[in-house]
Write a structure and sequence with these properties.
TIM Barrel; six-stranded parallel beta sheet; two-stranded parallel sheet; 9 helices; 8 strands; about 10% strand; elongated; binds zinc ion
Length: about 300
């Protein structure tokens, strides 16, 4: 009996020691892990704050530059401004006669890579400001209404690429012709309108195509397609993405000192910031003193091309 009681007691002691050991080990693990977890949480918070700070400083930079522009423009106000100029400082309408555009800064907004899930919102915004634009589109199934809306609302529907895969578009002359023909047919089948304007993927001066570029240009002119590059870039396709104020600022700076401005932008599923930036641009120009008009590209527009056919 006594032996039995002793061994029971020993068992009981062993169990208690085991439990204590486990408790100590758990406590050690807990106290070692705790600071690490706290560090990770703090790191996350620091990162988030950094991102917020960056955004705030971008907004601030933008506000600063627009304020500077305002100060400059009040300085130029000292020269007498005619009443007519003050009244029509910002005109959002398409004038019927090309000659009426004289005296205005003519802005051709161009949107590549659409349609996208944001095309309707973009078209609504353009409507709101009575601005016309040009869309250089891809073949995107399920967007028939958007292609038609672009045409019906008086914008120019240009073509960009069927699939936008450089290795296929620029594989050789044949690959290029196939791509252009495919997007041309795709767009005219949906809208009933034959496109007149084309934008090269990567622009006409891209270095991806290794063949003779004159052959590409000849093919386009045989198809009665005029290719358009740009002289103002929003940089909205920069990897990592710019904030709406950075994009707006790029556009506003690019517009300075030019009478005819072809602005490169994108209508894509990951670029809502472009639409937000455009609204800033509209508002900023609306409050400016310059006479501005937003036009679709037509055969009367100034042709902006980065390369020309070599003679
Ligand atoms: Zn593109």
């Amino acid at each position: 009996m006594e032996r039995g009681e002793n061994s029971d007691y020993n068992e009981f002691r062993k169990k208690r020691v085991k439990i204590f050991k486990r408790l100590i080990v758990s406590a050690m693990v807990f106290f070692i892990a705790l600071p690490n977890v706290i560090c990770l949480v703090l790191l996350g918070l620091v990162y988030k704050t950094n991102v917020n700070l960056n955004n705030i400083s971008n907004e601030l930079n933008f506000l600063k530059t627009t304020r500077v522009e305002k100060v400059e423009s009040t300085e130029t106000m000292s020269t007498p401004v005619s009443v007519e100029n003050v009244d029509t400082d910002f005109v959002f309408r398409v004038l019927s006669d090309a000659e009426e555009y004289e005296g205005y800064k003519r802005i051709y907004l161009t949107f590549d890579d659409g349609p996208s899930r944001y095309t309707n919102e973009l078209l609504d915004l353009l409507n709101e400001y009575n601005a016309k634009a040009t869309f250089f589109v891809l073949a995107q199934d399920g967007y028939d209404d958007e292609y038609k809306r672009i045409v019906n609302e008086g914008h120019t529907l240009g073509i960009h690429s069927y699939k936008h895969v450089y290795s296929e578009v620029y594989s050789d002359l044949n690959g290029f012709e196939n791509d252009v023909n495919s997007i041309y047919d795709y767009v005219s089948n949906i809208t009933g309108v034959n496109p007149s304007f084309y934008r090269f993927p990567g622009g006409s001066s891209n270095t991806i195509y290794k063949g003779d570029k004159d052959e590409l240009l000849d093919f386009l002119s045989e198809k009665d397609l005029v290719y358009y590059d740009w002289n103002v870039t929003s940089n909205d396709a920069t990897s990592g993405g710019l904030s709406k104020s950075q994009i707006a600022n790029n556009i506003l700076r690019g517009l300075e000192g030019k009478d005819d401005c072809v602005v490169l932008m994108h209508d894509a599923n990951d670029k809502h910031s472009t639409i937000e930036a455009l609204e800033i641009v509209f508002q900023s120009l609306q409050n400016g003193e310059e006479k501005v008009i937003f036009l679709p590209i037509t055969e009367n527009s100034e042709v902006i091309q980065h390369i020309k056919r070599s003679e």
